[in-house]
Write a structure and sequence with these properties.
Strand 11, helix 9 and strand 12 form a beta-alpha-beta unit. Helices cover 26% and strands 21% of the residues. Helix 5 crosses helix 6, helix 5 crosses helix 11 and helix 8 (234-241) runs parallel beside helix 9 (293-301). By secondary structure, it is an alpha/beta fold. It has helices at residues 39-46, 94-97, 141-144, 154-161, 163-173, 189-200, 213-221, 234-241, 293-301, 323-328, 340-353, 371-379; strands spanning 2-8, 11-16, 28-37, 62-69, 81-84, 135-138, 145-147, 181-185, 205-210, 225-228, 247-252, 302-310, 332-335, 364-367, 388-391. The protein folds into two domains: 2-162 and 339-391, Quinone Oxidoreductase, Chain A, domain 1; 167-335, Rossmann fold.
């Protein structure tokens, strides 16, 4: 089968690889009918998240048809159409039972203290082969897969595999409630769904901060009040628009891979050779040094005693945060990897009911055979390329 395979920093290829097989009784094999490229995939390609194992299939978003199930998969049958959650949970450990599927004690082969297991990630996350392929092996399939109603399309479902739940998670842990004012830093796909989710939870006003006009236009179309940080001071603008108070909640959806004010990139492009030095040096985040600009802005834009949720991806060595502001302003900060299985069934139900349509965020569809070129264009932040769906040949 064809699959997008990691060979090294800046080196991904469309390879012919063996089709996956059942390895554990809790496994299922899914024939992918839809996958996608996520900003997190670029972290691995650029080297921002280190530890990738050569030969790992990329991609943590998938929709498809169940082809085969292990003996312990009792809720799925071959032929069922499913959305696959990006993070893997067993469903029976104490963390999964409490809804913290991303901290499952059993899903990560590296042990219960290894952290989140997700598809197509570094060795520390499994590694588990991803879903930018024609077929995928899904561990703990009874929990990781959610069956889809006929009236939910692949295009809708692929948004529910990762980015919609992650945006919803950001609004959830920020404790957004009726009448709240919210600032979302970063208007990529996850930030867009954080805006949607904040309004779903009753937010009265949402401010969207970015410097790309295509993203800001999409945020404005959703009802957000937009701020271009290349043209005005984002903190000063949010403070002015809230009477000097700041917003009740802030959702940090930027992470480490970002653009500095003025549009300067902090990472090498896909396909370029990785530099000898640390790829993050000189960017918005530096190891053991300066915190990300978005984290500083978050602590300044939120009101006193407000709440910040951090859902942008940072590498494990990121050790800095404006802790002084946290203490002096009585702020609450929450963050983490999304517990996808906690939110996916609800979001599938909302889409099936017609209450919302997540495909407004989907801007491109490309065949998996064109994935390398799609990665390059996506990495260049070409205007209009906000979310890219990949269509496997096997579909």
């Amino acid at each position: 089968m064809k699959a997008v395979v990691f060979h090294g920093v800046g080196d991904i290829r469309l390879d012919d690889v063996p089709e996956p097989e059942i390895q554990e009784p809790t496994d299922a094999i899914v024939r992918l009918t839809s996958s996608a490229i996520c900003g997190t995939d670029l972290h691995m390609v650029r080297g921002t998240l280190s530890g990738m194992k050569e030969g790992t299939i990329l991609g943590h978003e998938g929709v498809g048809i169940v082809e085969e199930v292990g003996s312990q998969v009792r809720n799925l049958n071959p032929g069922d159409r499913v959305v696959v959650g990006s993070t893997v949970g067993c469903g029976y450990c104490s963390y999964c039972r409490a809804g913290y599927y991303a901290q499952c004690d059993n899903a990560n082969p590296n042990g219960p203290q290894a952290g989140t297991a997700f598809f197509g990630g570094p060795e520390a996350t499994g590694p588990l082969d991803g879903m930018q392929a024609e077929y995928a092996r899904i561990p703990y399939a009874s929990v990781t897969c959610v069956k889809l109603p006929e009236n939910v399309t692949d295009e809708q479902a692929i948004m529910i595999s990762d980015i919609f739940p992650t945006g919803y998670f950001g609004a959830d842990i920020a404790d957004v409630s009726d009448g709240d004012t919210v600032t979302v830093f970063g208007c990529g796909p996850v930030g867009q769904f954080a805006i949607v989710s904040a309004f779903m939870m009753g937010a009265g006003r949402v401010f969207a901060v970015d410097n790309r006009e295509d993203r800001l236009e999409m945020a404005r179309a959703q009802g957000a009040e937009v701020v271009n940080f290349d043209e005005e001071d984002p903190v000063g603008t949010v403070q002015e628009l809230t009477g000097g108070i700041g917003t009740d909640r802030v959702i940090e959806a930027v992470g480490v891979d970002a653009e500095a004010p003025g549009g300067e990139r902090d990472e090498q492009e896909v396909g370029q050779v990785a530099p000898e030095t640390n790829p993050q040096e000189g960017g918005l985040w530096q190891p053991g040094g300066v915190p990300s600009q978005s984290a500083v802005w978050a602590t300044e834009a939120v009101c006193k005693a407000g709440t910040i949720s951090v859902i942008g991806v940072f590498p494990p060595p990121a050790m800095t945060f404006p802790i002084g502001a946290l203490q002096q302003r009585n702020l609450t900060v929450k963050g983490g990897n999304c517990n996808h299985r906690r939110y996916i069934p609800k979001l599938v139900g909302l889409v099936a009911s017609g209450a919302l349509d997540p495909t407004d965020i989907l801007t491109q569809e490309e065949p998996v055979t064109g994935a390398i070129e799609a990665y390059e264009v996506f990495d260049q932040r070409r205007p209009g390329w906000i979310k890219v769906e990949l269509l496997p040949k096997a579909s």
